[in-house]
From TrEMBL, chain A:
Residues 58-332 form the RNA polymerase Rpb1 domain. It is found in: Cytoplasm. Its EC number is 2.7.7.6. GO terms for cellular component: cytoplasm; DNA-directed RNA polymerase complex. The keyword Nucleotidyltransferase applies. It comes from Methanobrevibacter cuticularis. This is DNA-directed RNA polymerase subunit Rpo1C.
TrEMBL record, chain B:
The keyword Magnesium applies. This is DNA-directed RNA polymerase subunit Rpo1N. DNA-dependent RNA polymerase catalyzes the transcription of DNA into RNA using the four ribonucleoside triphosphates as substrates. DNA-dependent RNA polymerase (RNAP) catalyzes the transcription of DNA into RNA using the four ribonucleoside triphosphates as substrates. Forms the clamp head domain. Signal peptide: none annotated. One of its GO terms (biological process) is DNA-templated transcription. Zn(2+) 2 binds at C100, C103, C146, C149. Part of the RNA polymerase complex. It comes from Methanobrevibacter cuticularis. NCBIfam families: PRK08566.1, RNA_pol_rpoA1. The gene is rpoC_2. Transmembrane segments: none annotated. Zn(2+) 1 binds at C60, C63, C70, H73. PANTHER family: DNA-DIRECTED RNA POLYMERASE (PTHR19376), DNA-DIRECTED RNA POLYMERASE III SUBUNIT RPC1 (PTHR19376:SF32). It comes from the Archaea.
Length: 390, 867
């Protein structure tokens, strides 16, 4: 997006104000952009603003519109057309990412543990072309195990010990620090290790073959570097260098120098909520849901997804859509009973002495009254005498 | 005639005290029998006539009204010993655990009590849920020593669902009740039992209310045998044990026997309330079927709430098979005469319509525009018979209501399940037609997701003028051409409508003036001036475009050449409309198809729904004419290609298979380089998939190069009418790789897919590559793999519908209460603001242009054209 001169925006704003057009910010921006691109005369700009104002007035939502139901249907209906296949390659062929209906369900469920957390790490301007820097960082972030840096590894059954020889070249290649690794290994295997230059020898606590094998596995899969919860990393050159990760840890990654704090993201909504707050989580829900739908070639208006996201985030924390979240916290007893766990809600209501004010949709359907939405939300008022006497 | 319409403003929930239950009760139930030998209900039995009657010939002993009018009255059973209510087992446990075992005070110190009381009062005032605070109280109020009487506390456990255990001793319900009685009202309030409506001890029952017979009607089988309701069965059990318990207690039976009977009574009362409580074996019917008791009646999809309260059965509805009719408008629905004579519209008779209505009545109930019932001034409903119709006509006067047959022009609701979005229920105008199916215009198939392979649809007739008016302005089909999901058309041309329009408008399709006028006449368009020369299809189509319409776009048939020739496109791929004249390009899916019709979209947005409807209706007629003049047919002969092409395809596939073998060989010799982040096996699979995918595409391309636009199958595929080029190439050239779980097929026998192959064979054929085309036919192995792939697809669809259905139910349930206020706020029913402006700009997506308010460039272009 090119940046448009502030002066032009101000100018458009001024004309819009003069023409009594109350536009949202994005409209002013779009109009300014068209003004510059199409080289409009001032007169043309004025007519454009008037035309847009008319279109805007015509397109406004009417009061009483059942926006919630329409949004729910618009998000739910394409579900039938989505694929079930869990894994799909999203741009990055090396990474598996959950997509399609399972992902959409995961988002509206607000799952704490999503099935394929992944991050896209961007870099600050001065680092984004620096291959060496990115590679070094990738190795620091990505999970490395002893297996990755061992040249030779064998279990010595005769002497009841495990030998491993470190490959310095591999360490160099991974841009890791040998001393640090050795310190780590020593810390993990406090007593059982002897280090002799590049040769590491481990001895089991009890001399049994079972113990020996367990120890061998433990040595091989010992994590020697990487950020918690992050597994594989993939370095990709798109317009700039980007690191994609398997697993996600937004908080720790953002603390690393050189990482672009603005563009770096994760697909884990709860993590975004804890690290960046509820507004960011709300945006993340919108982005993730929209991306999932678009990837399947389904077009759904953002406004519907925004409403779903706003509803999920309305209480200040991300709530799931379903009995443990929004539907279970409704104020109406009947609405909750009609959704799920009928008995539980009725019994609880009776000892709490709850009162159902019948303000919702389903309650009024249950008792057979018009619903307070759309044409059911208007009543008749009597003209007061004051006007009559005139 | 109509009474005052009362409105329920709120419903209060509470527990019933034993006194309440006794007060409500009209009779005590003591005998565990229902009817005597003569078939009369026994006094003080479960069918006591005080409890109300069902038979219209009997009178209720309690209220004196006839069966059908009396809604029934409760009775009661005095339980010999108290019994715990299953639903409250957990609450009782938590309450007892949080109170002192000896003094009955809550295990909180005075400051804590004040603190929680304030918190609760605060939440109540704001009508917020108190659950979290009460949950907190249950955890905080667990102390080893009572802060009020310094007594050491013994731990109280629960053995689900209803056994309360103190230390090692299992408390009897009487003891539980005694403990609960000691809790003061103030303490109960903090423990979540609202003293205004409930006392803790009421959770232990001493009296059991007996529901009226209307709740548990007995049915008489054809054999004359009476069959009782499940609830009655359960009540009989309770009464029987209760009597035995009383007798034993009076006789001074040993403690052990009394306790056993007490336990049994507890079991029966438990299952009477909930027959699916965990830890309790369900009570069964003689046939072994578990009984459906109170909780089961309410719960779940078939329960009272979801099946009878949230959704109700209605009258004045009809259902039958649907079939297509391109000759009716999209706003219309063809209704079989048989249905039109059954479902009726109530009409108020007045001076202006009395003659017309008299005619209806004179026709009687069996001749089409007739009438079935007449409601007189006194409110009596009289059926119209051929014998009585004259007499009724005589008496007819303004103020009568006549239920007349459905006739042309009436507004009805039309619906197809599953009703996934609001376009699944739309209002249509009735057109009464012969035969027995509903007829609908093909353009409305996409919103209903209907086809004609046996689909059935429902029709509902409005019974009030208000509803008719509302439906006509809000629910009519033409008002739903644009989908609120994405702001584009969802109603539009499909199948032959599209290929027909293409055949009509493609370059080279000309008609003699005579033919042209026939077509115009058929489309009911105004007859233009004669011009004494041949008409082109484009000229004909231009007749139904609005005069000032200007647009340019790339059509669906566009071949996506590297350099667009624009108007000179030899494929008719570039559509130009100037001042309502179709200058170049042909009509196809992009013109007026559902989901993508640009011309339709443009007309709808600029000229309104009336114009759009007219456009769709007359374009249907034109397209039919077009398709009838040109003719369209298809068979496998369309997919015939010359031998030379077959050889080329064969060569190509052969090469690909060889390439796969090479890849496998490279893998086996460890010469394959793995892709970053992938194992060797994964790399091989990916490469093979790629090679085989390309092979299928390439062979398809070869086949395609032999197809031209004179091929009807190709016309259908390229215009977007039906099928795709991929389908055609699968028929002609090669079906391609079959997949299960997103990869090549690798399951079946040990280390191989079928015993026809060697173990661990990785070649193309061994892993489900179908070399043949559908036309050639598949060999048995290919056929088997194809069936595997096909089965996965079917399973997938079945699971997906279930999952997405549940997701949609949850979404709708969570969002349905949202409402837009006059000032643009989006609030829920409690008044909590969800958005300050809907969608951040307050625009209704259904009224937007693919999500945007206006296309700025389009406006600018128009402005400049005007000048």
């Amino acid at each position: 997006m090119e940046i448009i001169d502030k002066k032009i925006i101000e100018k458009v704003e001024k004309i819009a104000k003069k023409k009594k057009a109350e536009f949202p910010e994005s409209y002013i921006y779009d109009i300014s952009e068209a003004y510059v691109r199409r080289e409009l005369t001032e007169k043309e700009l004025e007519t454009l603003i008037i035309r847009v104002r008319k279109a805007y007035e015509r397109a406004r939502v009417e009061a009483g519109e059942a926006v919630g139901t329409v949004a729910a249907q618009s998000v739910g209906e394409p579900g039938t057309q989505m694929t079930m296949r869990t894994f799909h390659y999203a741009g990055v062929a090396e990474l598996n990412v959950t997509l399609g209906l399972p992902r959409l369900i995961e988002i509206v469920d607000a799952r704490k543990k999503i099935s394929t957390p992944t991050m896209a790490i961007y870099f600050e301007d001065d680092k984004k072309e620096d291959e060496e820097f990115v590679k070094r960082l990738a190795n620091r972030i990505g999970k490395s195990t002893m297996n990755d840096i061992l040249k030779d590894f064998y279990i010595n059954y005769a002497e009841m010990k495990v030998d491993g020889i470190i490959d310095e070249e591999k360490i160099e290649d991974k841009r890791l620090d040998k001393d640090e690794i050795l310190a780590n290994v020593e810390k993990a295997f406090k007593k059982v290790i002897t280090i002799n230059d590049n040769k590491l020898t481990f001895e089991p606590a009890k001399p049994s073959i079972r113990e020996l094998r367990l120890l061998a596995d433990k040595v091989r899969y010992l994590q020697i570097s990487g950020v918690k919860n992050i597994g594989k990393v993939i370095i990709r050159k798109e317009d700039e260098w980007i690191i994609h990760t398997e697993g996600s840890n937004l908080g720790d990654i953002l603390e690393i120098d050189g990482v672009d704090k603005v563009r770096t993201t994760t697909n884990d909504i709860h993590e975004i909520e804890t690290v960046l707050g509820i507004e960011a989580a709300r945006n993340s829900i919108i982005n993730e849901a929209l991306r999932t739908l678009e990837e399947q070639g389904l077009s759904v208006d953002v406004r519907h997804i925004m409403l779903v996201a706003d509803m999920m985030a309305a209480e200040g924390s991300v709530r799931s859509i379903g009995r443990h979240g929004i539907s279970g916290e409704k104020s109406s007893v009947l609405a909750r009973a009609a959704f799920e766990e009928t008995g539980k809600h009725l019994l609880r209501a009776s000892i709490r002495g709850e009162v159902d004010k019948l303000t919702g949709i389903i309650e009024n359907i249950i008792i057979g009254q018009p619903i307070p939405l759309g044409t059911g939300s208007v009543g008749v008022a009597m003209k007061s005498n004051k006007n009559k006497s005139k | 005639m109509k009474g005052i319409i009362k409105q329920i403003s709120q419903i209060n929930f509470g527990l019933m005290s034993p006194e309440d239950i006794r007060k409500m009760s009209v009779t005590k139930i003591e005998t565990p029998d229902t009817y005597d030998e003569d078939g009369y209900p026994i006094e003080n039995g479960l069918m006591d006539p005080h409890l109300g009657v069902i038979d219209p010939s009997l009178r209720c002993r309690a209220c004196g009204s006839k069966g059908g009018e009396c809604q029934g009255h409760f009775g009661s059973i005095n339980l010999a010993r108290p019994v715990i209510h299953v639903g409250f087992g957990d609450t009782i446990h938590k309450v007892l655990r949080s109170t002192c075992n000896s003094c009955g005070r809550i295990l909180l110190n005075d400051t804590e009590i004040v603190e929680y009381r304030e918190k609760l009062d605060d939440l109540k005032e704001n009508e917020d849920s108190t659950n979290d605070v009460i949950k907190e109280v249950y955890t905080v109020a667990r102390k080893d020593k009572c802060p009020h009487c310094d007594e050491e506390q013994e731990d109280i456990k629960i053995d689900k669902p209803i056994s309360i255990i103190e230390g090692d001793y299992k408390l009897t319900p009487s003891e539980v009740r005694e403990k609960l009685e000691r809790i003061s009202d103030d303490d109960a309030y903090i423990l979540g039992v609202n003293p205004e409506v409930a006392r803790p001890e009421w959770m232990v029952l001493t009296v059991l209310p007996v529901p009226p017979v209307t709740v548990r009607p007995s049915i008489t089988l054809e054999t004359g045998e009476r069959s009782e309701d499940d609830l009655t069965h359960k009540l009989v059990d309770i009464l029987r044990i209760n009597q035995r318990l009383i007798e034993n207690m009076e006789a001074g039976a040993p403690q052990l026997i009394v306790e056993d009977l007490w336990e049994l009574l507890q079991y029966h009362v438990t299952t009477y309330f909930d027959n699916e409580a965990s830890g309790v074996p369900p009570a069964r019917h003689r046939s072994g079927r578990p009984l459906k008791t109170l909780a089961q009646r309410l719960k779940g999809k078939e329960g009272r709430f979801r099946s009878n309260l949230s959704g109700k059965r209605v009258n004045f509805s009809a259902r039958t098979v649907i079939s297509p009719d391109p000759n009716i408008s999209i706003n219309e629905v063809g209704v079989p005469e048989m249905i039109a004579k059954e479902v009726t519209v109530p009409v108020h008779v007045n001076d202006w319509n009395i003659d017309e209505i008299k005619e209806h009545i004179s026709n009687g109930p069996d001749v089409h525009p007739g009438a079935n019932y007449v409601i007189r001034l006194d409110g009596r409903k009289i059926r119209v018979y051929d014998e009585t119709k004259e007499a009724i006509v005589e008496k007819l006067e303004p103020g009568y209501i006549v239920e007349r047959h459905l006739k042309d022009g009436d507004i009805v609701l039309f619906n197809r399940q599953p009703s996934l979005h609001r376009m699944s229920m739309m209002a249509h105008e009735v057109k009464v037609l012969p035969y027995k199916t509903f007829r609908l215009n093909l353009c409305v198939c996409p919103p209903y997701n209907a086809d004609f392979d046996g689909d059935e649809m429902n029709m509902h007739v409005f019974q009030t003028d208000e509803s008719r008016a509302e439906a006509k302005s809000l629910m009519r089909v033409q008002e739903h051409i644009l989908s609120p999901r994405f702001g584009g058309p969802i109603i539009g041309a499909i199948h032959d409508h599209i290929s027909g329009a293409y055949l009509l408008t493609r370059t080279g399709s000309t008609f003699t003036e005579e033919q042209a006028f026939q077509i115009i006449r058929k489309a009911k368009l105004p007859i233009p001036k004669r011009k004494h020369e041949d008409w082109t299809g484009k000229e004909l189509f231009s007749l139904l475009l609005p005069e000032k319409l200007n647009m340019q776009y790339k059509a669906e048939i566009c071949q996506k050449c590297d350099e667009c020739k624009l108007m000179d496109c030899e494929n008719d791929g570039y559509v130009v409309i100037e001042d309502g004249q179709l200058i170049s390009g042909a009509m196809d899916e992009k013109a007026f198809g559902s989901f993508s019709g640009k011309i339709l979209d443009s007309i709808m947005k600029e000229y309104g729904s009336d114009e759009a409807r007219k456009f769709l209706d007359s374009s249907t007629d034109l397209a039919i004419s077009g398709i009838m003049k040109a003719g369209i047919t298809t068979s496998t002969n369309d997919e015939e290609i010359p031998d030379e092409a077959k050889e080329r395809i064969e060569d190509h596939l052969h090469n690909a298979e060889k390439k796969v073998d090479q890849l496998v060989a490279a893998y086996e010799n460890d010469e394959l380089e793995s892709l970053p982040g992938r194992s060797l096996e994964e790399t091989l699979e990916m490469k093979i998939m790629q090679v085989l995918g390309e092979a299928r595409d390439k062979s398809g391309e070869i086949a395609e190069s032999y197809f031209g636009m004179d091929n009807h199958s190709v016309i259908m595929a390229t215009t977007g009418a039906r099928a795709s080029m991929l389908n055609l190439t699968q028929i002609t050239a090669c079906v391609g790789q079959q997949s299960v779980r997103g990869g090549r097929i690798d399951r079946g026998y040990i280390e191989r897919t079928l015993p026809h192959f060697k173990k661990n064979e990785l070649g193309a054929k061994a892993r489900g590559f179908v070399h043949s085309s559908y036309k050639e036919g598949l060999d048995p192995i290919e056929f088997f793999f194809h069936a595997m792939g096909g089965r996965e697809g079917l399973v997938d669809t079945a699971i997906r519908t279930a999952q997405s259905g549940y997701m949609q139910r949850r979404l709708v349930n969570a969002l349905q209460d949202l409402n837009v206020k006059e000032d643009g706020l989006v609030t829920d029913n409690r008044g909590m603001v969800i958005q300050t402006m809907f969608g951040e700009d307050g625009v209704d997506p259904a009224k937007s242009d693919y999500g945007k308010v206006a296309d700025l460039d389009k406006i600018i272009d128009e402005m400049r054209v005007k000048k």
